[in-house]
Amino acid sequence: MSLRTFLYGLTTNLLVGFCCYLTNLFIEHSTDPETRLTGGLGLGIVSAILIVLFVSRWATLNTWRFHAVNMVLFLHSSFNFFVTIDKLIEPNGFFLTEYIQAEEPLLHNVWTFIMTFFDGIPLHIINYTIFYRVRTGLTTRSLLLFNTTACFAMLAQFGPVILTSGLTTRTTTKIFLGIFSLYAFLPAIVLHSARDFQLENKLEKKVMPVVLSVLTVPLLALSALIFISKALTSQGILDWPLDVFLQNDPMIVLNDIKDTYPYALSQIWVYLAVILPTIVVSIVYHFRKTKPHFLWEMSIVQASVIATGQAFFLMGPLYWETPEEFRVDPLNMSFWAINLIPVAAGFLQLASIYQYNSPLLPPSKGTNYRRHSYGQI
């Protein structure tokens, strides 16, 4: 990454932090609830517009897809970045203390903190990588698909839990759910853009594809068994060997919000409905020479959903606010095996298919991104 791009990115983050601080300061010193809500929303909207205008200038791209996808992802991950910072230094927060201290169990719990951290750190880094690639004229379609799918996976868990909760849904929660619902359309926008690749059978005489298949297929099969075992355990089926999961993966049965469908169960249903079918398809095509183009995109979706879900199962037992009975010893190897195998399988699947990936239009050095037919995202 060039020094100029790094400085632009750093300046943008500082601008976001400054806007968060001003909004938080306004809410902190406002006593009227209606003023706090409307004023905070107004400042948030003005801040978002200023940040969009600033990024549009240094990113050298001004298309509707860029604003609909890149900027939405960036603004949300920036917000979560500063929430994460304040949460880590709590009670000495600085940027968004009023949001963190709000008594709203549907927005402040183990699951939401883990997802906030995941979006505010790993996905935020990917968003900056996307901006760098946009600025240097490189394709961003695959990275955007990964990030938009991760956010859609969060929505697939967050939405049903909020909508079916017996708790009173506050105005702030409704606003967040409304904003978050936009994420349902982002993967479709990315997939609608022109493909910048094709899958070719060009590796018949090479050893690495065979090695990767030998590693990936068993791990995919193990991942399917792990997801099914998580589902059975969550339903109270604790016969051997499922009792191993309850002992070493306690987040499966976490239900830390009363009168609310557990986030963990919501995530497990996402695995069963989305990931199990993709695992079957992935295994089948490992034994075929011809790879359909959709396999690369499906592998990105698969890796993204698994990484997002497993962030909860991996980080939850180590989070200091998780109830004691749901924590695990960091040296528990069974815990790490159960939860890292699916992540490894997802990314090995990507590595395996990537070898067949050939760009349709390799960008020439120094070419302006606007000239590429990469969907203009």
UniProtKB/TrEMBL annotation:
Keyword terms of this UniProt record: Membrane, Transmembrane, Transmembrane helix
The UniProt record lists the keyword Transcription regulation: no
Claim: 4Fe-4S is one of the keywords in the record: no
Top-level taxonomic group: Eukaryota
Transmembrane segments: 7-27, 39-56, 68-89, 109-131, 143-163, 175-195, 207-228, 268-287, 294-315, 335-356
The protein's name in its UniProt record: EXPERA domain-containing protein
